[in-house]
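Hey,
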Amino acid sequence: MRRRSKSKYKGFQPPRGQKETPGSSQNTGVQTPPPVPRPDLWDKYASPALENGYATTTQDELPPLDDWPPPEIKARWAAQRERQRRNREIRRKGMVGVLVIAAIGTGFFALNRIGGKGRTPPAASPPQSQVLAWSVNLGLERLVTVVAVPGDRSPVALAIPNATLVDIPGGPTTVGTASATTGLTVAAVQATLGRRVDHYLVTDATSLMALVNQLAGVSVQTDTSFDFQGQQLGPGQIKLTGGAVVAYLESAAPPDLAGRWEEVLSGLFDNRAPRDLWDQVAGQSDSLGAARSVLAAARGAIVLELPTAPTPEGAVAVDPKGLNQLLQQNFGSAGGTLVRVVLLNGTGRRDLGGPVSSVLAPEGFQVVAIQEASRRIIASTEVVASDDSFLPQAQEVQQLLRVGTVYVGTQPTGIADITIVMGKDYQPA
């Protein structure tokens, strides 16, 4: 095969004596240029005779092409063909290997399914956040603790001092006085934190002693010495039995009680304590099993101090900024949003806020305000949802109070999710 000339030779006529190549066109008059001699014979044929301006080299004068292309080009082509052959062979073998592996895997999976061992395990559910309000009744004093088990961080235990002021409209003014009843304990904790409590547990001194004894005692850093069964214990690091723990707490002055309780909590939630010991905790709860589960999951909990500041009257007020930072860092999303409730009193009575809060608080409702109704006495109770989204909660309120008509309407205060117009038909439990 002869080499074609480049496009700049378009229009050349074939030399005399040479056949017209297939590239010439009779219709257009454009002719294929003459063949170019081999490079190594260029000098010999560099000056052919010209006739009318064209080379007159004949077919007989062209050099033989038996040695064209050169051997090195032929070797290069042969190497390229060999590489292509090897690549095809490698791809073929690779495809066969993939098919064999797939067949083996399919067979293994089928055998496992037949044998009952190849079931896909269920996807692990994300850890659930839980918040527990735990109250320990010592007789004259009560210890209120919030135990939180966030799903995405370490568990925490937050002791709330009894003297902490709390806003329960128409109810007790401190956490200590509110903890006299179960419902008001939950209401006080939720009003303090601004978050919902999932479960509650109320225990007594006997339950606390039994728990400590099951742990074979707890190590406590006592601040001062105290008397127990005729002996002086402390100060310093000491291991206390259940009876000694109760004596240590009962002998504390009111301002020191929360600090001593925090020391005891650190010993109770020590990482070395077996989880199953919490399964024996007894008390009053909305779900004793759930409360025990929260306490067991709180092993190793970080014991926190509630951010507070003294008031001029000698009480203890929550530091809102410090509390918000504590909740964000340690609670995360634990504890749901509270449903805000406003009471419009049309019963003719004044002792309304405490009983209603005690009933509604354990279900995630917070009474944020009490006002007088438009009429002093209203015959029938009405439960008004601020919009359709709160209609299910309004129906739940009606079921908890066991009285009232439910509907969606305009909220006169603008701050409530649900407004309860309390009528004379409401009777506290």
